[in-house]
Description:
The chain contains seven helices and no strands. The chain is an all-alpha fold. The radius of gyration is 47 Å and the shape is elongated.
Amino acid sequence: MKKLLLGVMLTLGLLIHQNALADPAPAGSLPSEKAKEAPEPARAVQPPAEKPQEPPSATPASEKAAQSGKIKISAGTFFLVLGTVQILLVVLGCGLFYKLRVGWLRYKAQRLLVNVKGAAEELRPYEGNSEGSTESIVKQADVRLANLTVAVSQRLTVLTGTKIFFLRFIKLSRLIRDSKGELKRLRSSFKEVRAEVRRVLEAARALSPRLQRLADQRAAVEAEVQSWTAELAFPLNHTYEELERLRQELQQASDTAQPDPVGAQRIASQAEARLQSMSRDIKDLASI
């Protein structure tokens, strides 16, 4: 590409130089000088009313011809220069566009690296302090985040350290294509890991209010069971046993909330389903 630009510029310079050498001198200048050097002929005595007529000069026609030829050459040179400048502008614009795309990919790689490191920091409190399902998720996510950190850092190093002249379109295009595909794959992998991290964080955040709500619902169901026992004069032993098991399970979920929020959420989901089933049974009993 450098050789091509240099060849275009040298060709342009030679054409301009040849056009400058080809410009003819004005044709009317020589006759005027000779006319000045030639002695004036003796005038014959003539009547005052008549004056000698000078022969027509060819100088205006030759000057017009010279000027018309000069304008034609200047116009050709102008359009040649204009076309060359347009080609150079297009080439420079394409090169700058490729360099801007490389810079944009570098920025996206930096943002991805920041997000990966942020997710790893969010899991830091659970490393070595988790149990059960949460421990398994944290270990897998931690390994994947470490691998992502290495891969994104390597791609960022390539985008930052690779110095390519902005007119080498083929190498720039290859760098952009490879980096774009690699960053797309890394972002997809990060989204999967990020979903697991959010699962742990969301379970820990929403567990305490959920357990409190289930405890209140269990107490309400137990009050209804006691009311129906007194009204029917019939002991609902099975229902009381189920309510006691629910109380124990909710207490277990509360005890394991800190080390295993994911496992505690699973216990809470099972207890909530059973509690809703008991509430429907009581309503059916009331409708009899």
